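User: I'm curious whether this sequence folds into something compact or stays loose and floppy. Could you predict its structure so I can see for myself?
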Amino acid sequence: MLGEKLTTRHLDEILKDIDSEAELKEYLELPGRESPFGSFIEYYRSLPKLKNVVPADLYKLASIDRSYCYHIWDGTKTPGRDKILLLCIAAGLDNDETRRALEAGGEAVLYPRSRRDCIIAYSIRQGLDVFHTNSLLNEAGLDPLK
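Assistant: Here's the prediction. I'll summarize afterward.
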């Protein structure tokens, strides 16, 4: 097990079988257990889709204030869940990339029992932009991403 690359799913299966503090301590020492990215922005900027994207394009597509977007980009601001989702949608990330971005940012992943999260996940899967995603949320009587 130590020589193989551990996926999140594999780690989750190992975690489910832990029955003692000794096993928990052993689990916490597994190599590759922690994300290689220390923050959302480290993960976000590492994505190939973003190699040639500049913050000026992102803030417009994400409907985020220009100065706030630059602060996120340079690491002086830590975005919340909605801002992470806006940036992921603006960059055209898929659901897996968005999940990893939320995890890297320390935010909750999209939850399939939440109506709002279901609409957001659908929008991401369909490649909809921020405007159309917020329109769907509005039609459902839910708070838009902001």
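Summary: The CA atoms of residues 6 and 12 lie 10 Å apart. The mean pLDDT is 87.
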